Every structure is written in C-alpha cells, then in structure tokens.
Queue: 2 jobs
Job 1
Amino acid sequence: LTQLSLSSLGERALIQRIAAKIAAQLTSQPPWVLIGPGDDAAVIEPERGTHDVLTTDAVVEGVHFDRAFVPWDAVGYRALAVNLSDLAAMGARPRAALVSLVLPDTIGADDVDRLLDGLLALAAEHRVAVVGGNVTRSPGPLVVDVTAIGSVRPRRILTRAGARPGDEIWVTGTLGGAAVGLQILRGGGREGAEIERYLRPIPRIRAGLLLGRNRAASSTMDLSDGLGDAVRQIAEASAVGMTIDAASLPLSDGVREWHASRGGDPLASAMAADDYELLFTVRPSQRGRLRGVTRQLGQLAMTKIGVVTKGRDVLLAEAAGTRDLPQGFDHFQ
Amino acid sequence: LTQLSLSSLGERALIQRIAAKIAAQLTSQPPWVLIGPGDDAAVIEPERGTHDVLTTDAVVEGVHFDRAFVPWDAVGYRALAVNLSDLAAMGARPRAALVSLVLPDTIGADDVDRLLDGLLALAAEHRVAVVGGNVTRSPGPLVVDVTAIGSVRPRRILTRAGARPGDEIWVTGTLGGAAVGLQILRGGGREGAEIERYLRPIPRIRAGLLLGRNRAASSTMDLSDGLGDAVRQIAEASAVGMTIDAASLPLSDGVREWHASRGGDPLASAMAADDYELLFTVRPSQRGRLRGVTRQLGQLAMTKIGVVTKGRDVLLAEAAGTRDLPQGFDHFQ
C-alpha cells in the first residue's frame, strides 16, 4: 500500500505520468484537437458556425469537499462536473477541458491517478477532450481548477438575463439529494442514491442543449450554488422579481424519507448547494416548445416551481404565508 | 489602513466588487465578447480563419511567490504573464482570459483590488479581455489560476516538435535577470531593473507572433521553468539532441555586475526559472526570415546560443569542457 510520494516522484515525472494517463484514455483525440497536452498550449479548431463558451471553477479541499469521505475519483469527477453544468446552463455542447492541479505533498501518486480516473470517466461520457493543464505543488489544500470550453450556435445561447414578468419558473430533476447525501456521508454512510447525487452529480448537458436548440427557455442558470442563489441571480440579471412555490419543489422520495426519519427541514436541503440541476424560465408562448423538450429528454423530470413577477422581490410562498427567499450558500460566511 | 476582510465582505459582494473592477477597466469590451463576466460562462466569437490556443497556469503563494516582498499587483501581473508567455511560444495572439481566485481570509479586499489592478494592467497592454472567472475561499495559500485563450492561423503555429539536427538554437532578450532580481528582493532591495524582470516579466507576444508569421522558427518554447527544462523539452519533443554554448548565453550587464560583486555562478542565474523569454530553433535556410523578424522587433535582442544535434544528448559546452546541461527547476524537489 505504499504510494510514491509526489516529492520522490518529481514534477516532471508526475506530469509525464498524468499525460500518459490522459493519452491512454483518449483512444483517439478528436480531429479538431490539433495540439493536445504536452506543448506550451493546446490548439483546437473551433466548430464552424459556433461561438466558444468558456468557464472555470475550482474545487478546494476543506471548502468543497472533505477527503475523509469523498473518494478521489469523485473529487476529479466533481471538478469537471461543476464546469460542465455551467456550460449546460448556456445551452453549450462541451468540447474540451484544461485541468490545473495544485497538489499537497500529502496526496500520493495513486490518489492523483484515481482523481484523474474520475475526471476522465466523466469527460469520456460527454466526449470532452482533456487538451492541457498544469501541475504545481501546494503547501496547503488540494485545488483542482478546471476550465471547460464548449460551443454554441449564436441564436441558441441561454443566459440569465431574459426572464420577463409572467414567465414560469422551472427546474430539472429533483432537489435536495446532494445535501442529504452529504449528511449521510458525514454520518458514516457510504452508499445510496443521495450519496451518488452528492459525489457524482449529473451535469444537465442534454437538457441545456435541448432548451437552447428549441428556444424553450427565456433564461437559464445552474443550481450549483443553491436555489436561493440561482433565483436571485436570474432575477437580478433580468431585472424582475420571482416567487417560488415551496410546495412544488421536487424532492426525491429518498430526501423525503431521510427527513421524515431524521428530522430537519426538507426545504433547507432543497435550497442547499450542489444539486447540479438547471433553473430556467419559460414564456407562456414557449410552453409547447418545452413540452417538446420534455418528450425528447424522456426520463428527466421538469417541474414548474414558480412565476416571474414585475415587482423585484424574490419570495418563497408557503402554506403559512410568503417570505423572502432564503439565501444560498456563501463560501465566505 | 483597516481593510475589509473577505469574510465580512461575503462572497457575493466580493464577486460584485471584482466584476465591477473588471468592467471599469474594460472601457469597451471588444465586439467579439458576446457574454462577458457575470453569467454561468462567457461566450466569445472565434476569429475567422484561426484556431483557438488554450493554456492554464496557476501561481501559488509560498511556491511561486512570497507575499513578504512581492507586491499584490505583481502577483496578479505574473499570473497573467506566465500564461501570455505560453501563448507567445505558440505564435498566438492573446484574446481573452479567465481568472480563478482561491483566496485565504488573511488577504484583505484592498489587496485583492491591487492584485486585479496588476493583472488588468497587463491585460490592457495586450488587449486581453477578462471574460470570466470565479472566486472561492481557501484554508491555505492564495492561488491565482489563469486560463488564457489566443488565436493563431493554422500554418503559423509554433510547437516544440520541429527542431532538426543542424538547426541553430536562439533565445530572445537576456537571461538571469529574474533570478538575480529575486535574490535582491530577498536581500531587502526593492527596486532596479533585475527586480522588475522578476516582478513584471514581459511576455514575448510580439516575438512569438513574428516568428510564427514569418515562419522563422522550427520549434519554440518559453523559458518560464528555466533554460535547462526548455532545452530538454524541445529536444525530447523533436527527438534530437542539443548543445548549448555557455559563453554565448546573453546575460544583462546588471546580472554580470551583481555576480561580480556578490559572487555566485552567473550561469546558475541564466539557467534559473522565471525569465519569460522564448527559446527557439532556426533552420539554416530560415536565417533570412529570422533577420526580418529581428528588424521588425527593433529593440529586443536575439542571441544564438547553440546547435541542434543528431545524437540525443543535451549538453552544455564550456571552456573547461562539455557536460550534461543542468536540470531546470522542479516544484516537487
């Protein structure tokens, strides 16, 4: 069980090991990757008639995950997933990624391998080419910073800014699974649907593509920082208000059951970070298009959870009355 | 002198403060930036007839800089410069950047402002649009991870892989300034040409563009990890050997004088990391093109420092004899 430590392996050897791993996974690089990993920079050919969509997000040990209960492959998986989720929210198709690893010497070379395995497995699922990156050591926590590049046709771009009063507010999938999964992990549990939701969230690439392609959404954002944050962001970018109907939030059976037996407010789980679903708004005139998207998506649920209002308040309507929508997760507080 | 701490400011407010700063600096976003900072991802229009060039590199406190003597603006400047230097080595024109900030709570909001000032000043100099990024807190050191995106015409791409036996080995500018500057900073010095070389290295964008445009180089790499590393990388990628002539390495007068008065081996400074010059090889038949590049560049020196060989050894030729070229800087050793 002895692992090579990073300092005994050396940076050059480590980079070669990582590059070899990436090369082995890509049985064939797509033809549009002209220069992959190993040069000063990567060179890719843009897809004709599309724009480049660019996003970057870092996953930091001790902030975004705890290595005591998040396996290394899930660390790598999540680092890419959070970025793919951002591309999904723009209606983009992911194409390539760059991976920046800031590694403490307390992580072994085999752990880095597993981290990359998780990242590369998700990349393969979505045909994302890992075209470059960099490795540096850290006197502090592990940081995995991924940049994802996608493509989108100009008229299919989804933004946060198009919601109008009278639009309906919708969400993909179910809410609360990630928060409950995290609680179960903290309590010592190691498997189950909610834990999977936390460890290996599914970026809603296909839903984003179909919403864009069918022009079925007036605004879109992903839920990685929580529902409260996403609703506020769309409201602010679109200069509208929003009222969310608490009773309509789509909790999974597992989330309901966990709260029924363990207590706590299911609403808090539904509002928590790390459900990588899409929040989007739909004009009344787009309802037919949305039905088309729903049919094409098949299994994935789509739930109406509220309405866009002219007044700028962001509210939560419950049986007991209406109040300000609680805030999302804030890393600095 | 009291600064807002990051935890009192809050992540959302901090992001808004950073976004406002970026927006203020970009008096007008270029027309090809369709969606800038503030959405789930940025959208940019590729330049017609060009490929995308992508690179990412992280600057880590305690590894790449010491906040005791590197001012915050220089931290930001260098984080972008290292990436622009990578684009230069591909013959690419930089267009856009994403900035990922991993911030310890020991950094104040004003410090973050200054860091961004330094980064944005260099971005403005090269007309680089900062189109996005993200902010997260860190229980450890500051990490600034920048992704830079450039464009290059297909036939003008410079790589590490084209050197052939008989090619000449050249380098831009002078060597050793960054290493000497770092020594002077460590000794308490705070200004001078060498310190500037360390704190605010000039990425050789124009040299890279001209080398690519004139097809004057058979291979190119930047020197950010040191001459020993760059020579080895080109030799390996091109499956050739290289012999560097120690006496021809272009040391600046300041570097010579510092070593004359303070001792130490000037060769060690010339081989150290952080001189952001370009190393490139030139076919004998390309000499005329290189002269054209030199004329167009004006002030920037170009010096022949060795030859490409058929035998795969990477050597340093000195008056005392020939030996293996010393290694470059390795973060893990």
Job 2
Amino acid sequence: MGETVRIAIDAMGGDYAPQEIVKGAISALEEEQVELVLVGREDILHQRLNRHKLNDPMLSLFEARDVIAMDDDPVLAVRQKRDSSIAAGMNLLKEGKVSAFVSAGNTGAIMTTALLTLGNQEGVERPALGIILSAPTGPVLFTDVGANADCKPPLLVQIAHMGSFYMNRVFDIPRPRIGLLSTGKEENKGNRLIKEANQLLWSSGLNFIGNIEAQDIPAGVADIVVTDGFTGNVVIKLAEGLGELFINVSRQGATGKLSHIMTPSLLKTVEKRLLDYSGHGVAFLLGVNGNVIVAHGRSETEGIKRAIAVAKQIAEHEVHYG
Amino acid sequence: MGETVRIAIDAMGGDYAPQEIVKGAISALEEEQVELVLVGREDILHQRLNRHKLNDPMLSLFEARDVIAMDDDPVLAVRQKRDSSIAAGMNLLKEGKVSAFVSAGNTGAIMTTALLTLGNQEGVERPALGIILSAPTGPVLFTDVGANADCKPPLLVQIAHMGSFYMNRVFDIPRPRIGLLSTGKEENKGNRLIKEANQLLWSSGLNFIGNIEAQDIPAGVADIVVTDGFTGNVVIKLAEGLGELFINVSRQGATGKLSHIMTPSLLKTVEKRLLDYSGHGVAFLLGVNGNVIVAHGRSETEGIKRAIAVAKQIAEHEVHYG
C-alpha cells in the first residue's frame, strides 16, 4: 500500500448535516486507513467534535463560512456563497491538498462548482454522475444518474466516452463494453433520444454492444450502462425503494411467524447483497478533473462512511486527469 | 357471483406460443371459474390439445389463420394480416362474445388493433399500458409502461385521466390520488417533459398530489403513478430484474451454506411478495373500449395463468365503456 489517502468532506451538505456527516467521518476513521478534512463552519464543527470527545491526528478542520442549502438554486448559490463548504472543499482538491472530495450537499451546486474549479476533461461539455453496481462479471458503471435530466443524443455519446475513460483507468478494463439502456435490444426500440444515440454510438469508435434492457443489468451484460440523467435517477431511486421493500419483507420474516428460520445472520446476508446492488446512493462525477463523490442527500452515518470508502477506492486507483 | 366470465386468448402470440399459451389456459381452467376461447390456427391447436388429452366444455377454439410475429412492424402487420389471432380475438371482444382478450403477442399490433377495432374512449388520442402494483394502501396503477415511448406533456395528462377513470371504475376509488413520477418532489425537479406536465396536471381538475419519487411507489403514496412509456417500461423491467436477482439471492440461501435456515416455505413467501410487486408482466390497455390484457412476451404457463386471472378480475369489475 502507498501513502495514506487524504479526503475532504463537506460537513455542511446533506439533509442530516452536520451531525451525521461528522459521525460518518469519525466512524470511517475507525475502519479505514484515511486522513479526513472536515470542511465547514469551525464553530459548529468544534462543538460536534467535542461532543464526540475526538482528538484524532487523522482528522482536521478547514473553515468555510457559507452554507449552500439543499434547495438553493445551484447557479445563484455558487455565485453568491463564495466561501461555501462545497467551494472550499473543491479548492482543496484543485490544489492537490486532498485526493478526493465527498459531499452529500446540493448536487447542482457540486456539479457547477466542480466544472468552474476543476474544469472539464477534454471534449466534455457537461459532467455526468455515475454509480458502480456489482455484477458476477465485475463492476458495472451506471451513468448518468442525475446530472443531465434533458439529454440530446450527442451528450449520451459523450457520457459513454467519459464512462469508457473511467472504467479503463479505475478498473483496468481495456475496451469497456458499453450498453445503451432501452426498452428492447433491437435498434428500433426506445424513444427518439435512444434511437438516435444508438446510431451515433455504433460509429463512435467505442466498444458499443447495442441496446440493453434493465433486467439484464444485474447479470453484467455490459461494463457501462449509458442512460439519460432522468431515467438513470429514477432507476437508482427505484432500486433503492425495492431494496428497502425486500429488506422489509425479509425482516418481517425475521420477526414474525418465520422468525425461527429467518435468522439475523441470513438477514444480514440478504441485506448486504441488496445494499450492494442498490449502490447505497454513492455517486461520483465523471468528466471533471478530480475525484468528486456525491453522497445521497439523505445520507446518515453509514452512508457517509460508505461514500468515504468509495472515495478512498477511487483515489487509490489514481485516476489521472488532464 | 354472477355468470362465468368468457375470455379470449391469443394462442399464437408470445415467444413461447402456442405451447405455453395452451398450457397456461389449461392450467387456468383448473383453478379459475372461467370460460376460455383459444384464438389461432385450429390445426396447430388441435394437435396441442390432443396432446393434453383435453375435452373441456369450458374451452373452445376460434379459427384465425394469420400469425403476427413478435418482430413484425405493427402497422404493416395489422394491415396485411387481416385474419390474425389478434384481429380475431379483438373482434370477439368488440362483438361482446367475450368480456376480455388476453395476448402475449406483438404489443404494437395489439394496440393498433385495439384502437381500430374497439375505438378509443372520448378525449383519448392514444391508449396507454398500465399495470397494478400492490401497496399497503391498496392497488396502485402504474402507467404508461410502454405504449407511448415519446410523450408530450398533454399526453401525460390524458394518461392521468385514463388512469383516474380506470381506478374509479375498477376499484371504486372516488377521487384517485395521482402522482407524477419524477426525480424529486419539488415542482422544478425532473426533465422538461415532467416539469411541463406537472404544471398542466395542477389545473387538470384531477386529484393531483404532485411529483413522487420511485422509492415511494411501494408505500402507496399515490393510487396512480403517471410516467412516460419509455421510463415506465424501463422501470417495470428493472423491477423484474431485481425481483429475479433477489429471488436468486434467496435461493442461494436455500441451497448453499444457509440451506438449514432458508427453507422452501420461507423461499415461497419471499418469492410471492417479489412477484406480486413486480407485477409479473401483466399489463392492460387504458383508453380503449374493452378489456385488453397484454401479457409479457416471454410468458410461460404461469405468466399466462396470471394474465387470465387479471383479465377475469377486470372483467368481473365490469368496467363500462362508451
């Protein structure tokens, strides 16, 4: 193993900030070999940290006085709140003082700040959001999961390029197989956007394998599944909802009539597989020059801890940008 | 209970037609109080029925000599294959000789034939496809699941109207709560289509409750979840894929190391809940004057049996059209 990865955390972003963010960071330090920088209002963070009686050399604070709210208009907020925790964290990343930045805050503000501060990779107009799913074949990148609700066909091709770059660098896949999410495998299936993107992808030079259907994603038929940010966001939220539903079904088994057979250990096995599949809400930006991890806005301790683990993993794979 | 419901089945439509369709029909007759009419090529069907040594007064055949293939162009096929099983079955419905028509065949051809033969309900330009999901609050109608891949905002409002009519008539819900599937509850969330439809729905006179997110569907926050046919189709296929994944996880528990705790009875309980949620691929047309059930193209015996059960349920609720 190389040197310890240093990660900045937006302590003020997310529905349960700062308490759950701080707790998640402390919890991550107990399990992971990482150095964390909590970015936000030091007065508030000091209180939280005292409460946790923490004095860890692997944890430091970085002052940012503005807070961007979850429902702030992203462009306005970025313009007016110059010393936000998002802006400050992104600057640490830009300056190379940290290897990754994690935020559960306003996604639009994170994207806008990333573009302004870090800049986009060559040929990229707009970044995309991706998540990694587990398949028997290995990791599967699912993108865009929310950055671009309205896509034109060429943007889907760009997303495919960003994804291909990413899977090549992070997972050493030489020519990642790209599938386009549609309602059928045939080229004439899908809506207008997908039909046009399908044509463009065949001549993109990428390793395009054609349309794929949602039910085939878990089997790993493609290394990258490309979709527009609206559909992708709906899909991950549905996976999340179904995961919770199935966990509840299993838990009912564990506490109700079936409690003699649904033991805590089986429940844990089932939950692990479900959460693993649903991605647990840890997304990251594709197409910008830096490792930016976007945790679920509703992240609590466990979610932040997972986001930090993903950040560490990505940073250790040393994706080089520029 | 009233008189026995009579249902026509397209024996030639679906990836596993006619064998699985015939088997599904025979299986349904063993469990349901229904009268079935198998529509298709009598020569082929006679063979299949002999093989099953069947001579049931509740089962009859209706000759249709043309077969529309799953990958036929819908409009061309409907024009050229005048004596298809889809056309013949739809005519039986139109003439009142059956109360519902079930097909696992070419969805586009089913829709086109339904519009031409049965006609559309007042104010409806294009029919939609719906499925019923189970929620703790009762049944939830999810629509459009594939009829209209490209929607304009007014079409989503029409789909909401069709759904409202349906849930009112079939499930006696006075003012069904309508949710619009989006990426966030706020009105400014979603893509352009959804933002515009949101505005139109508030002034539609329907019981619109605003945007809802995919993870909230299973809880039953709305009686009707409205979406475009592309997103809806992706969503049900994903639910299907995740359902299979989770069943496999459970089965691994049942056959592998955990087999001493994951018993067949628990497995059955889990599977039942999952299949119930995923809707098992039984969709129906909204907006046309008749009960048309669209079974999954990959339906086997069990799927056809479920489609017949759904057809019976809808027909017994006596949705009156016109």
